Amino acid sequence: MKKRKAGQEDGGVSLKEYIAYQYFFEHIPSLKAKIAKYRFLDKQTFLDIVADFFRTDRYCQSNKVKMDERTALTLFKFLDIDGSGELEPEEFEMFELAMVGQSRDAKAKNDALALLMKLQEQAFAKFI
Fold this sequence. Notes:
The chain is mostly helical and 128 residues long. Helix content is 70%, strand content 3%. The chain is built from 7 helices and 2 strands, in the order ααβαααβαα.
C-alpha cells in the first residue's frame, strides 16, 4: 500500500478510486467468509486483504487504482464498531445493513408494524 507523506494534502477521492472502493465493498461477502473461518480479522490481516484485492482486481489493475494505508486504516476503524482492534462477523453485518439497507421482507415487516402502531394510536385517540 502506498503511504502518504506527512503534511501531504489529501486531494480527495477520484472517480476511479470511488468505483474501486465500491467494488471492494461488493467484496464484503468474501471478507465475511474469512471472518467465519478465523472468527475475526485483525488489523494486519485486513490490510493484507485490502492490498491483495486492489492488486488483483481487474478494474483496479487496469485503472492503476490502489487504496493507501491511511484510507485502509480509516476503513478498518470505521468497521471496528466496538473498538476492539478486530473485525467480528457482527460488525460486517451492521456495515452491510447500513450500506445496503434492509431486505424487502424486513422493510415490509417494519412498515406494516409502523402502520399498525399508527392505526392503534388513531383508534385510541378517538376514545380519549
